[in-house]
Amino acid sequence: MISLNMLRKARARIKIPRAVIVVVCILPVVLTGLFYLLRHNSGIMSHIEDNFSGTARRFLGLLSSVFPFSVTEVLIAAAIILLICYIVKTIMITRRNPGKWKILGKRILPVAVIALYGWGLFCWLWNVGYHTPGFAENNGFRGHNVTQHNLAEVTRFFADKANELSRLVDRDDESRYVGNRRIVFAESKGVYRNAAALFPCLEGRLYRPKPMVFSWVMSRTGYTGMYMALTGEANINVKAPLFLMPVTVSHEHAHQLGVFAEDEASFVGILACVTSGNLVFEYAGYLSGLMHLMNALSVEDVETWLEIYNSLSEEILQDWRDNREFWQAQKKVVTGIKFLDDALTSVTRVVSDTVDTVYDGYLKSQDQELGIRSYGACVDLLVEYFTIN
Question: Whole-prediction pTM value?
Answer without folding.
Answer: 0.89
